[in-house]
Amino acid sequence: MFQAPYGAHDILPEDQPYWGFLNGKVGALAHLYGYERIDTPIFEDAGLFVRTVGADTDIVEKEMYTFVDRGGGQMTLRPEGTASVCRAYIEHGMAYRQQPVKLFYQAPIFRYERPQAGRYRQHHQFGFEAIGDGDAVLDAELIDMAWRFFGSLGLKNLTLQINSIGCPECRPAYLAKLREYYVGYKDGLCGDCKIRLEKNILRLLDCKKLDCQPLVAGAPHSVEYLCVECAVHFEMLKSHLLTLQLPYEINFGMVRGLDYYSKTVFEIQPEEERGQSTIAGGGRYDGLIAELGGKPTPAVGFATGIERIILNLKKQKVTIPEALKPLVYVAWMGDAALRTAVEVSGELRMNGVATLMTYTPRSLKAQLRQADGAGCRNVAIIGDEEIAQGFVTLRDLSTARQEPVALDKLTEFLQQNN
Ligand code: HAM
């Protein structure tokens, strides 16, 4: 028996209302803040991610689904959305559009991780990228958008954490300090961290191993090593967040797991879980467009894990709008009635009335049960007598009341009475 690949999921009809609900909210949010939708291919040249996410990150080192296609190209199933959007920004000359270019996407994302609750090998993200403006006002607007999104869903008890990890000007001094600190504890580091110490020091702060946590907690803070430009940017960001009345906390140890960030980084987490199930994360990536061959262009963005949002909506018992139900079920008994049922169903659907029927003969009782199970409020019953006299017996399942309705008046009657 085949099963969905480990860590990947089917999204069954019963869960689709959550997806519909979130899609609607994201569309409205994008409109509110001036973002337009972009869709990029599910796979890209592997080099795109190695170059941007970083060769020494967990994503590139351990998690990418990379394959050689029949033409010999190294392709990767997208492990995140930002690099693809930046590639598209350059490829389509978006630098010549009005800046910033604000884009959003909904995309499946692939990471070969160890699956657990809220962590999958295929998950989905909504992402927002604003490319072409370096001012902290834009960072604040983006964080405001992320925060208000979760508010609009009815999610509670979330925390908003921010940090600044500086820029290529000031980061080397910070990294030197971090190295100095960690070298002293080298022997106590986990295997991965020993390698990180050699290859990518900032990633030491990402370590999730329990034994490394005291070291992460005691590490020097990046904000203490910011150059004037980054320090002013961070101050301005905090001031704008205050103006927007966003309840942020500074998390000095947060560096995010991708290499392209500079200055602002932020995450939103459910309060009780703290870091175990971040529902949104992002930050500024001023060097990324240039890294991909575009002219230097500042940018900021974030993405949110859709499955994790849905887990939280369920956990917090947030009620979401129900899926639309069919309005009527056409029940029939006998061959002659089948012909009329096909005709009536066709007519109803032509007029925009969502209609179900049985295809194989069933007892009336079984058809009523089916109608009820599908959430139909009305059943139009057609038997010999109804055919002879040109009407249907319309049963309202919520009251069990029945009345005759002329065949040629059925659409109008249903539209007016529901
Ligand atoms: P990320 O933090 O790697 O950032 O992922 C964004 C969100 O995707 C996470 O906060 C989490 O909710 C969700 N997520 C990540 N991995 C998994 C997984 N294995 N299973 C379920 N959900 C997951 C990025 O991808 C950046 N591209 C965000 C960004 C946009 N930065 C700037 N612009």
Report on the structure:
With about 425 residues, the protein is an alpha+beta fold. The protein folds into two domains: about 15-170 and about 225-315, BirA Bifunctional Protein, domain 2 (2-Layer Sandwich), CATH 3.30.930; about 330-415, Rossmann fold (3-Layer(aba) Sandwich). About 40% of the residues lie in helices and about 20% in strands. The protein is built from 15 helices and 16 strands. The chain has helices spanning about 15-35, 45-55, 60-65, 80-90, 135-155, 170-185, 190-200, 215-220, 230-245, 290, 305-315, 335-350, 365-375, 385-390, 410-415; strands spanning about 35, 45, 65-70, 75, 100-110, 120-130, 160-165, 250, 265-270, 280-285, 300-305, 330, 355, 380, 390-395, 400-405. The strands form three sheets. The protein has an eight-stranded mixed beta sheet, with helices on both faces. It has a five-stranded mixed beta sheet with strand order 13-12-14-15-16, with helices on both faces. Helix 5 packs parallel to helix 9. The longest helix has 18 residues, at about 15-35. It is elongated, with a radius of gyration of 28 Å. The mean pLDDT is about 95. Histidyl-adenosine monophosphate binds near residues 80, 257, 285 and 301. Histidyl-adenosine monophosphate (HAM) binds near residues 81, 113, 301 and 302.
